[in-house]
Amino acid sequence: MTRRDIGSSSNPTAGRPPRFIVVIAAAAAIFVVLPLFGLLWRAPWSDLWSLLGRDVVWDALRLSLITSVSATAASILMGVPLAWVLARTSFPGRSLLRALVLLPMILPPVVGGAALLFALGRRGLVGEWLYDTFGILLPFSTAGAIVAATFVAMPFLVISVEAALRSVDRRYEEAAVTLGASRWTVFRRVTLPMIAPSMAAGAALCWARALGEFGATITFAGNLQGRTQTMPLAVFLALENDRGAAIALSLVLVAISLAVLVALRDRWFATP
Amino acid sequence: MTLHADLRLTLGQLELGIELDLSANETVALVGPNGAGKTTVLRCLAGLSPIDAGRIELDGVVLDEPAVGTWVPAERRSIGVVFQDYLLFPHLNAAENVAFGLRSRGFSRHKALEVSRALLDDLALAGYERSKPRELSGGQAQRVALARALATGPQLLLLDEPFAALDAAARHEIRADFRRRLDSFEGVCLLVIHDPIEALMLADRLLVLEAGTVVQSGSPAEITEHLSSPYVARLVGANLYRGRIRGGMLEVDGGGELHLAQPSGPEGAEAFATIRPQSIALFRERPDGTPRNVWLGTVTKYEHERDRVRVTVGGTVPVVAEITPAALAELQLQPGSEVWVAVKATDVSVHPV
Amino acid sequence: MFAVVIASAALAGCGDDDNGRATSGEGLSGTLTVFAAASLTDAFGALSDMFEEQHPGVNIEINFAGSSSLAGSILEGAPADVFASADEANMRKVVDAAESPVKPKLFARNLLEIAVPKGNPAEVTGLGNFADPYLLIGLCSEGVPCGNLARQALDKAGVSPALDTNEPDVRALLTKIEAGELDAGIVYRTDVAAAGGAVGGVSIPREHNVVATYWIVGLTSANDAELATAFIDFVVSNAGLEILNKLGFLGP
């Protein structure tokens, strides 16, 4: 075994890492991969095909994709301006605002769901007005599931974009201004493209979080096949009385997540 | 077309107070030590920093006048800026970079790229339109930055240390061309330059800025003669001559010739020669010995500077020599005294134009 | 294992007097882990308090969740001493897998009731309203006993519910009804009683109603079979029944 075997191909002088680091890294990898093997070991391989053919699986999958993608889109639409304000302006209470915006990241999702219920439910602080005035009902609807997912996932996007905006070299924006670009043009043609890689990574994280959301969804949007029962909810409920189905669903979710992560692998670590 | 600016600004420790009057047919260089405020002046003219008091007027249009409340933001000024690090947008290729200004002002993509390609072609960058900035050499990037600044046809061109990011070879490669471009530019042009040799070579007029005020202003020749501050003295650490290379010598424009130590360029090529004042020896009698450049001149004046004396000697090749006070006393020099000037050929540095 | 079976049988045979004090088992101590159906939360809370009072050295830890979830965990090997289920099916699952050495005991029964928010804003009068698509209706999910029984009742009444959500357990369902986010749901009579005035109740006629049976059994994995049996005996005793009745449960 030569040095080059261990060092990365782009930096042959990297050399071998210290042995104990390799050992710990191997243990960490096993720790992460072991539950996956647990799933595979208990999978009902003989019944898998018929299990996967069931409506409940496809309804859940469809809902999961709809809610996670919509939540990501909503997070981008709302999160980028929010990140801009946090990164580029200063006003009293800005730190407090940032803390509040990031709160859903550490709040237990069920608590988040309960809070959403008290705010946007039929008898909620704002929800009651929405219902009485416009007939808008968020709980027990797909829109509600999207709201729940957005609530927990948006902070991931905001934090990525804010960091990116802070680290952008402002001099490029000045150069654009001297060339006659309006502030909107500067944002659209210079700032945004320059933060695009970070934004993509943030969006991927956001999507992954939205896809896996359970607590807030079941507490706020409820659980009904075809309307609000996303994959994680379906797995949880199947665990109660149909383990085989639960595992089948889990495998589908794992497969999709893996596929997306592998497809995005270069983007995660690419430098502009 | 002219630029009249009266800039007063306090920025941290710096108190800037200068007046500028620039016209379109001259290239003016702003020189000075770090912290003097050169970049601040550029930023004020560009509209990136507002002034505290004063007035900026370009071609009759007032751009900034706090007393009256007039302020034209950078994006609406007719300016082109070449930044020290060029700041070419990394995600756009060369043509798109150059087209940026036009597109921002409403030109269609097609038209803007057309103009852009023509400009790049003009700057000998045809074939590099699709290259990304990171694929360009230093000299190429500098030219793209210049093209980008010129593309919108600005009335005021501002250049911040345009050669700072280049190595000696690249500077050499593009300096002559650069001078030509600046000369052919129809608007007002202001350069910020740190390297005194380049300032003297590129500009028609120099403004020496120190601690926020202009301490000296004039042509390169005038600056070279006078001494108004230690910085200027250091800045002007050289005698500068322009001429043509002929047979191992430099034929100086305006008369005189200097022997060169080694072949310094093709026959007939234009070149600059510099001689450090410290390398010039003065004698009462014609000296024997090695220096190949020896001639008789007349002392026009001398000035004391700390522990040195600078003696200006007129003649076919005018020089400013630096000698010790002791030497001055020994030589008993007075304005009008005749004195022999000796310079070794090796002390004559030649720079091709 | 055989010895444990004998020991449990012997203890089960030991009588306790009608006041519910175990004649053997004086000086019981240790921790007892009980897995109990969610709908038994208040009941077992009271029962375990009284038992701990009578046996100061004993600490009872109860894990409340849906019966099927608990059964599943026991089958996966979760360490529990006693299992109390809200239906026969889940108890059978556990017993059939030989997770218990003795027969389970039926210790209480429950009836279903419709729960509505305080004041019954949607004016729900019976199971018939459950087909109304304009009302927000919730049930327990199908895997949970409450959910299965509710669906049986609706079947009996010939109603096809316009369902809006399947909650994972009774508590979750009640919380939403209490908050007014749901117009009606089907829970146990005991749950409506336990909620006090926070939730309103609409009774289901006997011909449509379904009886839920509650079973309790000591598990093979019990650390202290004696302690487990003592607790079970207390639950099925008159004293235990008194507590259960107070909360709205029917006797076995």
SS strand fraction of chain B: 35-45%
Tally of distinct domains of chain B? 2
Q: What is the CATH H-level superfamily of the largest domain in chain C?
A: Periplasmic binding protein-like II
- Name the CATH architecture of the largest domain in chain B: 3-Layer(aba) Sandwich
Structural class call of chain C reads alpha/beta
| Number of strand elements of chain B | 21
The H/E string of chain B reads: EEEHEEEEHHHEHEHEEHHEEEEEEEEHEE
What is the 3D shape of chain C? elongated
Helix amount of chain C, in percent? 25-40%
Question: What is the N-to-C succession of helices and strands of chain C?
Answer: HEHEHEHEEHEHEHEEHH
Span from first to last CA of chain C? Answer: 30 Å
Q: Within the CATH hierarchy, at the fold level, what is the topology of the largest domain in chain B?
A: Rossmann fold
The greatest inter-chain interface is formed by: A-C, 23 and 21 residues
Q: Outline the biggest β-sheet of chain C.
A: 9 strands, mixed
Q: Can you walk me through this structure?
A:
The complex is a heterotrimer of chains A (272), B (353) and C (252). By secondary structure, chain A is mainly α. Chain A is 77% helix and 0% strand. Chain A has helices at 3-6, 19-42, 48-52, 55-88, 94-106, 109-120, 127-134, 142-167, 170-178, 183-212, 215-221, 231-241, 243-263, 265-269. The two termini of chain A are 34 Å apart. Chain B has 353 residues and is an alpha+beta fold. Chain B is built from 9 helices and 21 strands. In chain B, the strands form 4 sheets. A 6-stranded mixed beta sheet of chain B has the order 7-8-9-3-10-11, with helices on both faces. A 5-stranded antiparallel beta sheet of chain B has the order 2-1-4-5-6, with helices on one face. The mean pLDDT of chain B is 86. Chain C is an alpha/beta fold and 252 residues long. Helix content of chain C is 37%, strand content 25%. In chain C, strand 1, helix 2 and strand 2 form a beta-alpha-beta unit. In chain C, helix 1 packs parallel to helix 8. Chains in contact: A-B, A-C. Chain A binds chain C through residues 117-118, 121-123, 137, 139-140, 218-219, 222-224, 227-229, 236-237, 239-243, and chain C through 66, 68-69, 72, 136, 138, 141-144, 163-168, 172, 176, 179-181.
